[in-house]
Structure formats: structure tokens, C-alpha cells
């Protein structure tokens, strides 16, 4: 990213948000029925695909696994965006209402609330029963948005946005996936592009002159967020629902498989971002390799 944070740039982002609003109510063809031959998620994103156990599932079970996992994905987006909104509200109180930052964050809040409503509509449309995050997950999520310094929370928000953006790109490009999910992903992809652009500009103030400790801290913050997002998708309960014998065994295999796949195909943007502020060093590199299975 070579651009620098300037009022003119942010004013332009605010203008686009106002002049080209994307309303989920009209942008997504909610009235369409999802046909039996359509998928809910590209196979490449389904946790177990690529593992030998994937072949033991019937086509119906494979499709069902996609449905349950895309529900987890949408639920996780709604949940993490709800947390981000809590933080944006907290951060707004430190800003002056006529500042560009304040006005941009209001636009971002408006868009994020629309996204949450859209994700919740997808879960309903798919007849989903999301498996909620565990106690510690919820505890750390809420604690950090209420107490962590703004730069760290913005770093967390960006990490989640970069990851959701990759999923969105894969879903919107796969023509075998239902049009409803593809339009949801397209809308999100467009608006998150602006949020990511803004957040990167904002964070440059902090990363530009950060020393070793701070860079390492930011790097680990990104890593932890990616880790938390990854753990929200694969659930033993889902394997029970699709009716496999020994669901724990399947869930363990799927966790390992997803870890491998995300490391290979989905973390490019996040890694590039961490690289941009020199967040990989002798301390953080081994942790990234171990937790995310990435080659850096
Ligand atoms: Fe969003
Ligand atoms: Fe966003």
C-alpha cells in the first residue's frame, strides 16, 4: 500500500458509500429457490474436501456439509462484525463528529449492520442451526473489543476482513454455487474492499514507525484472529448431523485438512499485509509456521 492517509481519500470513500449503497434487500435475489444441483459453498472451501474421508461421504452428505459449514461462516461473520461494531461505537466517542474519521466510521457502521442482517437472512434461508463459539472464544472477543487499544482492535478487524474477503472471492466466482450466496459474497466483497482500504491507511500511522516489539505484537494479533476464525467452522456436531459414524474422527481430520488448505490457498492477503509492516521475524515466524502451516 503506497497511498497515505489523507482527508481527501477518506472523503472519497464516504462519497462512494453514500452514492453507491448496496442494499441486501434488493441486491440479493432472496426469492429464488436453491436447486438440488446447486452448491452452498465451493468444494475447495469445505473443510474435509481433499482428505481421503471426503470420498466416504455420499454426494448428499457432501452437499449438506457445505450447507452447515457455510451457515457457520455466515454466523461467524455476523458475530465478528457485531463485535467490530461494538468497538467502532467505543472508538467514535473519542472522535469529533465533524472529522472524516468519525464520518467514515458511521458509514462503515451502517454497512456492517446491513451485512449482519444479510448474514442472518442467509442462515434463515438455509434453515441453518449455527453452533455458537465456546465460552473462551466469546469471552476474549468481548473483552478485547471493550478493553484493547484502538490500534490492536483495528488490526483484529482487518485480519477478519482479509479472511472473509478471500472466502467471498472464492464463493462469488464459483458458478456451481447458488446465486443467492454468490450475490451475498459479491456485495460483501465490494464494501469490504473499501473497509480494508481505509483500515490499512489508518493502521499505517501505527505500523510505519513501530519497533520490533510492536511489530511482533501486531503480527501475533493478526495470527490469533485468523486462528479464531478458522476454529469456528469445523464442528463435531455438524458431522453428527450429516450422519457419519465416529463424528469426532471426521471433525479431527477436517480440522487438520482445513488448516492445511487455508495455509496453502487463503492466507495470501493476510500474509502480504503482515509482510508490509515487517511483522515476520525470528520470534513470530516459527509461531506462524506452527499455527497456520504457512511457508514464510
Ligand atoms: Fe462486513
Ligand atoms: Fe467491514
SSE arrangement:
Layout lengths: L6 H13 L4 H4 L31 H34 L7 H26 L9 H13 L2 H24 L5 H29 L4 H20 L4 H6 L5 H19 L2 H9 L7 H9 L4
Helix pairs in contact: 1-4, 3-4, 3-5, 3-6, 4-7, 6-7, 6-8, 8-12
Count of spatially separate domains: 1
Distance between the termini: 20 Å
- The number of distinct β-strands equals 0
Please state the structural category: mainly alpha
CATH class category: Mainly Alpha
The overall average pLDDT, rounded, is: 94
CATH architecture: Orthogonal Bundle
Descriptive notes:
It is a single chain. Helix 8 packs parallel to helix 12 (284-292). The protein starts with 6 loop residues before the first helix and ends with a helix. Helices cover 70% and strands 0% of the residues. It is an all-alpha fold and 296 residues long. The chain has one domain (7-13, 24-29, 38-292): Ribonucleotide Reductase, subunit A (Orthogonal Bundle). The protein has helices at residues 7-19, 24-27, 59-92, 100-125, 135-147, 150-173, 179-207, 212-231, 236-241, 247-265, 268-276, 284-292. 37% of the residues are buried. The protein is globular, with a radius of gyration of 19 Å. One fe (ii) ion is lined by residues 112, 161, 192, 195. One fe (ii) ion (FE2) is lined by residues 112, 161, 192, 195.
Which tags fit this structure?
single chain; 296 residues; mainly alpha; Ribonucleotide Reductase, subunit A; globular; binds fe (ii) ion
Amino acid at each position: 500500500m503506497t497511498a497515505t492517509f489523507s482527508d481527501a481519500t477518506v472523503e472519497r470513500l464516504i462519497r462512494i458509500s453514500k452514492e453507491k449503497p448496496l442494499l441486501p434487500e434488493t441486491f440479493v435475489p432472496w426469492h429464488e429457490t436453491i436447486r438440488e444441483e446447486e452448491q452452498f459453498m465451493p468444494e475447495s472451501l469445505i473443510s474435509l474436501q481433499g482428505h481421503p474421508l471426503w470420498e466416504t461421504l455420499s454426494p448428499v452428505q457432501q452437499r449438506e456439509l457445505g450447507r452447515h459449514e457455510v451457515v457457520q461462516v455466515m454466523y461467524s461473520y455476523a458475530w465478528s462484525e457485531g463485535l467490530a461494531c461494538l468497538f467502532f461505537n467505543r472508538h467514535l466517542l473519542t472522535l469529533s463528529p465533524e472529522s472524516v474519521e468519525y464520518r467514515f466510521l458511521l458509514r462503515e457502521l451502517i454497512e456492517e449492520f446491513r451485512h449482519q442482517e444479510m448474514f442472518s437472512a442467509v442462515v434463515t434461508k438455509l434453515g441453518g442451526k449455527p453452533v455458537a463459539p465456546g465460552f473462551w472464544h466469546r469471552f476474549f472477543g468481548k473483552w478485547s473489543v471493550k478493553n484493547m487499544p484502538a490500534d490492536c482492535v483495528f488490526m483484529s478487524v482487518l485480519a477478519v476482513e482479509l479472511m472473509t474477503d478471500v472466502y467471498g472471492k472464492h464463493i462469488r466466482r464459483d458458478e456451481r454455487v447458488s446465486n443467492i450466496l454468490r450475490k451475498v459474497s459479491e456485495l460483501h466483497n465490494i464494501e469490504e474492499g473499501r473497509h480494508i482500504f481505509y483500515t490499512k491507511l489508518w493502521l499505517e500511522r501505527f505500523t510505519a514507525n513501530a519497533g520490533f516489539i510492536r511489530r511482533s505484537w501486531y503480527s501475533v494479533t493478526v495470527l490469533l484472529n485468523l486462528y479464531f476464525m478458522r476454529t469456528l467452522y469445523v464442528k463435531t456436531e455438524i458431522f453428527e448431523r450429516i450422519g457419519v459414524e465416529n463424528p469426532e474422527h471426521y471433525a479431527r481430520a477436517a480440522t487438520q485438512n482445513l488448516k492445511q488448505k487455508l495455509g496453502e490457498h487463503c492466507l495470501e492477503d493476510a500474509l502480504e499485509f503482515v509482510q508490509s509492516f515487517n511483522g515476520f521475524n525470528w520470534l513470530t515466524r516459527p509461531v506462524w509456521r506452527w499455527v497456520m502451516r504457512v511457508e514464510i
